[in-house]
Design a protein that fits this description.
Its main location: cytoplasm. By secondary structure, this protein is an alpha/beta fold. It has helices spanning 16-27, 35-47, 52-57, 72-81, 85-99, 112-116, 130-143, 150-166, 188-201; strands at 5-9, 31-33, 105-109, 122-127, 179-182. It binds adenosine-5'-triphosphate and ligand L45E5XJ5. Adenosine-5'-triphosphate (ATP) binds next to helix 1, helix 7 and helix 9.
Length: 209
């Protein structure tokens, strides 16, 4: 049996990160949140003398645990540098090596099933309506104490969706062989159960308790 490589893509707040973490824990696999790489590049370009391309080439210098990378502003800034082809090219090798380690892996992002691991045996494209995603992100921001309003969250998310889907370089899109998981009316447990059923239909099961 080939190593279990799970490629998860989808728009902002669709729930792909939550699903990726749960699947990684369930199957005891390493997990890469690839959005953090683009967030780190944007942060370095704004706070150091590096260009986005240089920051992407110096990825090992990035602190992916920096809480500043988790804000909505960081997500917007990430989606701007993510449209630069050389930034994407400079992040490719690290992601491909992460994906192809012997243990298998879970990666989530926008181009995982299409560009980073088109050979993954399991590809999941997670979606949810814009309304559901705005509600989730708004609640998340409020819980973190951010001062925001829903119309702003909506406008920013719609803009990020457009930028990520319409850019020429590796746009957000489902791989032809991806399983489409619409989580608009599912909680995180139901999304996890649906993903597990799909993965087991591909012949993969977790080995332990
Ligand atoms: N199926 C679900 N139903 C309801 N809420 C969910 C679901 N999945 C995740 N959430 C919640 O929605 C929010 C966004 O989820 P998550 O961070 O997983 O999305 P994401 O697609 O990785 O977003 P981003 O690309 O912006 O990082 C979180 O607060 C999470 O707890
Ligand atoms: N594989 C990826 C992952 C992310 N991006 C860009 O980064 C932005 C932030 O991503 P989050 O998942 O952390 O929200 C996102 O809007 C994309 O522009 C990407 O291009 N490819």
């Amino acid at each position: 049996m080939k190593p279990l490589l799970i490629a998860i893509d989808g728009p902002a707040a669709s729930g792909k990160g939550t699903l990726a973490k749960r699947l990684a824990a369930h199957f005891k696999l390493p997990h890469l949140d690839s959005g953090l790489l683009y967030r780190a590049v944007a942060w370095a370009a704004a706070h150091t003398s590096r260009t986005p391309e240089e920051a992407a080439a110096a990825l090992e210098a990035a602190d992916l645990d920096n809480p500043a990378l988790r804000t909505d502003e960081a997500g917007q800034a990430a989606s701007k540098v993510a449209a630069i082809p050389q930034v994407r090219a400079n992040l490719l090798k690290f992601q491909k090596e992460f994906a192809h380690q012997a243990s298998g892996a879970v990666l989530d992002g926008r181009d995982i099933g299409t560009v980073i691991c088109p050979d993954a045996p399991v590809k999941i494209f997670v979606t949810a309506s814009l309304e559901a995603r705005v509600e989730r992100r708004y609640q998340e921001l409020r819980e973190r104490g951010a001062d925001t309003i829903k119309p702003r969250v909506l406008a920013e998310m719609a803009e990020r969706d457009r930028r990520d889907s319409e850019r020429a370089a590796s746009p957000l899109k489902a791989a032809p062989d991806a399983y489409h998981l619409d989580t608009s009316d599912m909680d995180a447990d139901a999304a996890f159960a649906a993903a597990l059923a799909f993965i087991s239909s591909k012949g993969f099961r977790s080995s332990g308790p």
